[in-house]
Automatic annotation (TrEMBL):
This is Zinc-type alcohol dehydrogenase-like protein. GO terms for molecular function: oxidoreductase activity. PANTHER family: PROTEIN AST1-RELATED (PTHR43482:SF1). It comes from the Bacteria. Residues 10-321 form the Enoyl reductase (ER) domain.
Amino acid sequence: MRIFGFTEYGGPEVAGFLDVPDPRPEGDGVLIDVDATTVNPGDIKVRSGQRQESFPVRFPMAMGREAVGTIRELGPDAPTDLEVGQRVFGSAAPGIGTFAEQTVLTGTSATPLPEELSAGTAASIPAAFGTAHDALNQLSLRPGQPLLVIGAGGGVGSSALSLAKAAGLTVWGVGSAGKHDVITRMGAEHVESGPGWTDRVRRLGTPVAILDLVGGDVLREGAELLSDEVPAGSAAGSAGEGAGDVGRQVRILSAADPGLAKELGGSGIVRHRTREVYARIAQLLAASAAPTWVSARYRFADAAQAVADVEAGHAAGKIIIRI
């Protein structure tokens, strides 16, 4: 089969189209013919080798971590309620990517595709909407409380704005001037990034919590915006699995720089890549209770350009690749 992948770690030059043997589902794996997949910043970090210690790679491997498609074959331990010919979406099994004609999803994440949901939207759920959903659950804010999302214009950021607004939060999204439309369309107040951005936030008020998708100095600056005390009645940051020391309130979560977030009293995002979570998000999106933003759709033949758009930081919302 044909994949867009890599045979060694490195920059854009190591990625390209490759012919590889067809995958086979092992254990609870679900083999699908891929309809659509998406490009995420994490895909680029895997290709570059930045996640070697935490992410399994089997060369040659396709890029991509989420997909929607039609079941071709089920592994011996796959969920018994799934069947060949059924359309599903979910997260890729360890060591296999999704920029490919076929891929294997984990049985725990393979979720039946609602008829009302488009393939592109469903393909965006596991990484972007899933991360946003898990972060908001971890923060556990109450309706009306202000959440600051740093790096709000990308896939995870726009998904977080959408879900947060649907949950009744007051949402402020930090992003470049070019991300104004996606941030405001997702229901948030746009705060333009760049010099003086923290002053612009202060004019809006004091955020209860921060969801960071940028890291580094920007996250350090953002942490200074939080008040020293959690507002009365806030449920923000109840410590849980992976959320820090028991009893410590965590109001900073970072997908981009979890180490720094921990240094600042927060944590990384604890992911729950399960069918139950994905089905819950799919129902919300199918009911149009939360908007989505797809900035571009590419053919499989143009996968390199799709990756380049995300790597350059210019993409707003989600980038979809149709196989």
